[in-house]
Each structure stands twice: as structure tokens, then as C-alpha cells.
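User: Predict the complex.
Assistant: Input components as received:
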Amino acid sequence: MANKRVQFSHPIIPYLFIAPQMLIIAIFFIWPALQAAYLSFMLEDPWGMSREFVGLENYQYLFNSAEYLYSFGFSIVFSALVAFLSLGTALILAVKANAVLHMQSTYRVLITWVYAIAPAVAGITAYFIFNRHIGVMYDFLNSLGWQFNPEADAVDASALLILVSVWKQIPVNFVFFLAGLQGIPKAVREAAALDCANERRRFWTITFPLLAPTGFFLLVINITYAFFDTFGIIDTLTQGTPGGRTTTLVYKVYQDGFLGADLGLSSAQSVVLMLLVLSLTFVQFRFIERKIHY
Amino acid sequence: MGALKLSSIEKTYPNGHRAVRGVSLEIEPGEFLVLVGPSGCGKSTILRTIAGLEQLTGGEIHIAEERVDERLPAKRDIAMVFQNYALYPHMSVYKNMAYGLKNRGVSKEEINSKVTEAAKMLQLTDYLERKPSQLSGGQRQRVAMGRAMVRSPKLFLFDEPLSNLDARLRAEMRLEIKQLQRKLKTTSVFVTHDQVEAMTLADRLVVLNQGEIQQVGTPKEVYHQPANIFVATFLGAPAMNLFEARVTSANEMTLNDGQTIQLPAEMANRVEPGRNVTVGIRPEHLALTQNGQRPLLNFETGLSEELGTSQLLHGKIAGTDCTLNLPHFDQHSEDQLGVVFEPKHLHLFDVETGKRIDHG
Amino acid sequence: MKKISLIDHIILWAGVLFLLLPVWLLFASSTHTVETIVKDGLQLLPGSQGFGAYKIALTEASGFTDVATGARMLLNSAIMGLGFAIGKIIVSMCAAYALVYFRIPFAQLLFWIIFSTLLLPLEVRIVPSYEVVSQLGMLNSYTGLIVPLIASATATFYFQQFYKTIPDELLEAAQLDNAGPFRFFIDILVPLSRTMMAAMFIIMFVVGWNQYLWPLMMTTEESYYTIVMGIKSILSVMREARIPDYSVAFAMVILSMLPPVAVVVIFQRWFIQGLVDSEK
């Protein structure tokens, strides 16, 4: 940490300033996190009356459970698709918004406002539109000959989840891509215009590589988003239906721990997720910050 | 009665870097002292230890006979003007100047009269309600000065305060600072790497290199009698020309290529024959031969540069790069010219130590 | 040149419509009668009923929840959004101040503890967190809704980074001006952070308002329901295969979006700044 040349030194005051944060972290973060780690080695009877140390049994059960392994795979495919589609759409919009001379700020407002919509609200909005009873899109897709039925068909349900998750994440990606594009120095753009007449070629050889740091950073953000922040969308749209085929890892933690009241199993899942986030953070720090640097 | 006294102060950073190595100095009341040296020479560190922004690792600092090196910066009765001014961007000019007084519990009326007075002196009266961002570079500089003045401290510290200004404004502000200091008679320590600033502002000059004092003296002394090769080449632009030579007799030296130079009269018999020396002469003290004058040295001509008031002629003497600063010079086509100089303008330095070999 | 620009605009409008249309459909439909919607589905054009459904959604406690009116849930959401944003900004500004401006032993350790909160989002540790809050007797309280969410340290890093960009000389000048730690914080640092605070406020308000899972678990008393979680009750009506009062349901959804969307649109500049800075 590069700090100030000159700092205050005082035996008490700095601790007064940092105390509220530390207190909140201790009570509402560290304690529950340790609790989760502890419970992941325990088996609790459904009424919470007794607990028994079972070692790695919860973990063994997890990785032998077809359901859990399915949701592991589903989470990966789901977040890859959400990240890819949302990044792609946002990149196209950002490049176009950066290219037009007029109404740039209007487009920016009209694209970013969706950020303010809660995932749960986005989910319920989609629920209405793709609903069997009143949904216009339901009728439209079926009139095209697609037997669209998210309540029964896992692929349809997943597609719907992905669509809404992509929709909700476009603004964040758009803002960062636009900032990245505008951060490319004017002199570089002008030099590129002199060196390369073909606009498409110029994009792929100059602009796109210069956006790579932004893109990789956003990739991590998007995967994190698809893992954790889509909870509200899933809970309002599919609740894991049909038959658990749209259950992400995070949704499963909630289902097993809160609805299913299997604390040990849910805690073990929390620990696995924590390790996933840890490795994602590691990748972000080591790989991305080192390798892609201009 | 020193206004400021540094007694063998030392500053070693935790990483082992020795920024200041035993510097001792005494400054008279009302004196304008300039610390000058290349970047990394420790001049800013010395200033910051005087201010109390850095802790000493050895030695003592006294201000007006009181030891201050253990005190908090605010308790040393000093004021500092920073390189980037460090004005509080969200406060008006008035509040910027008043803040230090307010924090010391000075009454509203007194603050008002002091700030008004300082503003008048600095021609800032019309700008008191403005924010720093609405001021020009020169005006910001004046506010920084005003903030230091209102407290009537025992000591002003200036940390390269002119380096953020463009050349013209820098010259103007240089003059203003000098006039102001003359008027206020506040003892001042001014840090700069710019030799013109150093020469023009200083009552006394301290040349520093690698955390050690190289020479202390008036600008004239330091320029005309540099204590060593470092000082000789650091001050003056273009830098002093240096040649390796060997004393061959009681009153003669020989250069690498066999050309000889007469020792100055007062140096004759003072340097034992056989000794190796470095001979220095400033570019403006070299001239070309005129009307059949007998040349003292041969000069291989190179490129010339027009400066307006004079010309620089680059070339070589005895195979060593050399520059002449000539008041007027007509393009010559010859590649060999004769050069003359007055022997009293020669500087002699010991080859090993770089120290001046003096007339005594 | 002109042709290319026209294509650009068409693509941009396609994107804008893709984002806008779903919400517009709900809004247009909210001004129709329930009969129209049941018979013909969602409507693209506004209907004859005006904003009647909004009045019902705001004032009538019946419908989806029996105690909480839309107005009450909006108020709770506002308390949650404001409390979260203000609390988080104060707590993290203070913590970052201690980390950047003080020489403290174990600073590195404290930094890593704070950093570790990024590893485990609330969604992941939801069950043990719920247990802790329930043991502390904070279920069904605004404190319980807001404070545990402040544990994550995004804003602390944000302010830490910002403080580091403030020139060192400002603190040095302040020290010469006899300003101690409290004075420097109040007189210099807080006023200098105003834009940063505004930017952070916009983001945190939206994040706080949009909380769904946490209030869902924390609140059993309907008087604490927030509007975002309140819409869940619309769903339970539909899942039980009953027909809800569609126009009122749509109005409720639109109402739940309105405040955060307004904040983001009105304070667009700060929002963009906050978003770009806070994610770093």
C-alpha cells in the first residue's frame, strides 16, 4: 500500500474511525462466515435439536449428488452465456454510441436506466411478458411454431433466464466499454485513421486490443454477476423449475439452507462458493492485472 | 543570534537511503537563504525536516535559539509555500488564508485585518471570495504566499514554489517574492533546482549534492570561486569547460595534446610540477583571436547556436568538448581557430578530490 | 459517411427498444382494465383507465398483502435505500480515513480483513447471517435490514483509492495550519469528497432499494415489507392459479422501478462516475 508521505499518528483516534466498519464486519461477516465453515462439517437434524460432527461427509455428499453437479454445470454454462451475450451486445452499442455525433448522451441515458431496475423486478416483468395467460411474447413465440413453455421445458426456462440476465447487465457493460472507448487517446485514433483506411479492420486491430483490459475486467464482473446477482431473477421467474433444471449454485444454497433447512449441506455449498470467488479474485489480480497491460 | 540553526542534521529513510548526511547551517535573521542542487540532493528533505513534516534521524534544529525538532509542525512558528501551492480547493481565497489563524484561536477581527492587509499587499483584494480553481497560476502562487504571511511566522519555507509557472510568470513572481521578503524581513529558506532562481534570489546560496553541503556563500562567491568541480559545473549555463592538464613547470601546464597554458600569476610556484590538475574556464571567458592576436589555445570548430544576445560556438580543445559564449561571431569557414583568455579566469581543481586549488 | 451514421442510429435504437419495450408494455397495460388484459393479453398502447391502478396500488392495503399498502412499502424501500447509502458512506469514509491517513500497526491486517468481505457475498452466507441477526433480535427492524448489508467493503476501497489521489501537500499544509485529525477530516477531507460521496450515494441508494433476498428473509411483519420484495406476493397469487388484479400488479411493478430509475436518470453524471469507480 503506497500511503501518504506524512500521516497522523495517534494511539486512539484511528481506531475510533475504523471501529464501526470492523464491528459490522466482525458481527455480520466474520461470525456468519466462520459459522458456515463450522456447520459445513456438521450434520443437524431437521428440527435443529442436535448436531453431530461428520467431517467431510457433507462435501462428499455434495459431489456425489447428481443434482448438485448439475447445478454446478448449469451455473458455468449459464454465466458463460450471460457474460458473452451481454458483453457482445453492450460492445456493439458502445461502439455505435461512441461513433455517433448526435444524441450521444440521450442514448447513454436510454441504455443505462435499466441498471436501476432490481433483478427481482426484471424477473417479474419478464414473467408477465412470457406468461402463458397474458404474455405477448408467449403467444408470439408459439405462433412462430416454437412450442415455447418455460414452465415445463428446461431449455425454454434457461433461455428465458439468460435473456433477462443479459438484459439487466447490458448497462454496466455499456458504461465501461464506452468509458474504455473514450479513454483511447485521440492521437491514437488519428494515427490509426492515417495508417488504416478500412474501418472494420481498424476496429479489430486497434480499438479491440485496446479495449481488452476493460473486457477482461468486465468478464470477471459479469461472471460474478451471473453467479450471485441473478438470484432475484431466478426466484421470480423459475424458482429452479422445471425440476431443478434452472438452479444455480447460489440458488441452491438458499433452497437447501432456508427452504430445506439442511444447514450442514447448505454451509458446505457456501464454502465451495467462497473458494470459487477466491479463485476468481485471484485470476483477476494475477492474470489480468499482469498480462494485459498497455 | 541565529534565526535558524541546523546542527549536523541527518535523515536516513527506513529503506536505508541517506537523504541528508550531517548538514550544519546557521542563518541570520532576515536572511534569504537558497538551497540549490540537482534532484535527489536532499534539499527538499532538509526543508521538510525544518518544517517538521519529516522526522530527523540525527542532529538538532533550533529556531530563534529554541530547539524545535521534537515539536509538531504547527508548533514551530514557521510557514511553508508548497510546490503545487496545496491550496484547499473547496475554500475561498479568504478562507484559505484564514484557516491557520482560525485553528489557532485568533479572533475574527484580527483574522479579518490580517487577511485584508496581506491581500492588499499581494493585490488579491478583489479575489478574496473566489475559489482557487478560478484563479490564474500567479494568483494561486500569491494566495499561497498570503497564507504563509498572515501568520507572521519566524521563518518562511519555500519548496520550489515557482516550478509550476511558465517562464515569464516565473521571472515576475521571482521578483515579487524578493521584494516581499525585503519588505517583511522574514528569515526565508528557499529550495530550488533552478540556478537562475537560486542566483537571483539568494543572499546566501547553499549548494548541495548527495545529502552534503558542497559550498555556502553569496551567489558571486559561489559563481566565481566554486569550491569544487561539482559546484563549478552545476552553476552557470552552459557549464564550465574542463580540461585535464599536468603541471610541467613552476608556471606552466600541459594539456593532453601538448598545448601549454600559463599558470595565473598568483598561482605560479604554488602547484608543484608533476601534479595532475583539472583546469576550468567558463564559456564567456573564452574569446577568439582578433587582428593577428597570438592564440593561447587551438580550437577545432563545430556547430554554433544563436542565442540572440550572444552565440554559442561548440568545438574541441585538446580533444575535449568545449563551448565558447561569444558576444558576436561571424560564420567562419575555418575549422581551426585561435582562442584567448585572461589567466585570472582559470580555475584549478585537484584531479582526485575535485577540490579547488586555491591561491593560498 | 451519412449512410454509416444512419446504420449506427438504427442499431442504437434497436438496443434502446430492446431495453425499453418490456417496461413500456407493463406501463401501457397498467392503464387498461383487468378484463382487457385477461382477454387480449398485454397492451402496447395506453388504455382508458389512466392512473387509477396506481392510486389503488399506493393506498389500498388489500390485494396482495393485507397490511402493507404500496405507499408503505415505498416508504420502507426509501428508508432502506437511504439508510444503506448514508450508513455505508459514513462508515466507509471513516474506515478509509483511518487506513490512509494514520500510521497504525496492523494496517495491512485490517486491510485484508476488510478486503475478505468481497469474497463472500451476502447471498452465499445468507443462512448463518440470518441466524446471527435473529439471535440479536433484529428480525423485523430497519437496523436488521440495513446494517448487515454494510459489511461488504466496496465503498471503503473506493474512498481509500480516492483519498490516495488527494495531494499529500494538503495534509501537510493543514498540519502547518494547526489542524488535527478531526479538523482535517471535517474541514478538508469531507468537503473535498463531495462529488465522490454523491456518486457513491447514487449507486448505493439503487443497491439498497433493490435488495430482494435479504428483506425477504428478514421481514415477516408486513409493515416492514419493501416494494421490491412485496412483488413476490403478486407471484404467489399467480402461482396459485388465481387471477390477480393485473393493472394494479403492473402499477406496483412500475412504482418499484420509478425512484431508482429517476435517480439514475436525473443524476446521470454522478451515476456513471460512481458506477465506473465503485466496480474497480
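Residues 214 and 220 of chain C are 12 Å apart (CA to CA).
Let me know if you want any component modeled separately.
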